[in-house]
Amino acid sequence: MTVHPSARPISAQHPRVRDLLALRKDGSPGRIMVEGTWEHDRLLTTTAAIEAFFWCPEAGIPDVDRYAARAEEVYRISEKLLARLSRRSRSDGLISIARVPEWRPQAFRFSDRSLVLVADGVEYAGNLGTLIRTADAADADCLVLTSRRARPTHPAVYSASRGTVLSTPIVEFGDIPSAAAWLRSHRFRVHLADPAATGTYRVPRYDGPTAFVVGSEGSGLSRAWHDQGFDAVSIPMLGQADSLNVALSAGILLFEARARKEGW
């Protein structure tokens, strides 16, 4: 087993442990908890800074040097402390605090092939992570958040996004009119995902900058988005269910627009 020479043993009273316990619960602005071997392998493929790396030798994972080498601080923790810090029933002893990139609305430049996904009021970290992963898969320019409830830095977001939360641009607006104005200023044609809409998602041409707005799992799309006067599109429900999971709906819409833009 590799033992990193700079790994310092720490106890439960260490300030870094308090940091990690706070991140474990709900995340914090700019930082996210990463746990697991696959998750750390994915972390190394990004440019994200690793603020601190925690390693439990008793967990039996060899070759931790490649993770520790990227970290600003390296700590060795006991099995007892690992059990307190881990979010898993069986941890492999690798936990990091990583910094999440900050994206500013004014930094973006868009073209006719641009795609943007807007998530309004998403409540669950797992769904938010899947929306990020879906935006990445469809080569969307960014994910816009309005009326946010789930934090992008919640630990579950990293796993559900397959690590793409560290590479997918995410922009948050404090209110819906500000987000709508930003999209209009960049000439986006905005489509609201609404099961009650009469026009299906196959009707628009998607030949310019395109944005889709999806709503929360329980309440759907905020009335404030409908008040903006944007068109609404629906995905026909042909069975007994009245709607689809928000991430699945977003995937159908994004890939339809991407197919049109790329001439698939």
Q: How does this structure look, described?
A:
With 264 residues, the chain is α/β, with parallel strands linked by helices. The chain is 31% helix and 19% strand. The protein contains 9 helices and 11 strands. A 6-stranded parallel sheet has the order 8-7-6-10-9-11, sandwiched between helices. Strands 1-4-3-5-2 form a 5-stranded mixed sheet, with helices on both faces. Helix 5 (125-137) packs parallel to helix 9 (246-262). The N and C termini lie far apart (50 Å). 42% of the residues are buried. Residues 115-255 form the tRNA/rRNA methyltransferase SpoU type domain. It comes from Kribbella karoonensis. Keywords: Methyltransferase, Transferase. GO terms for molecular function: methyltransferase activity.
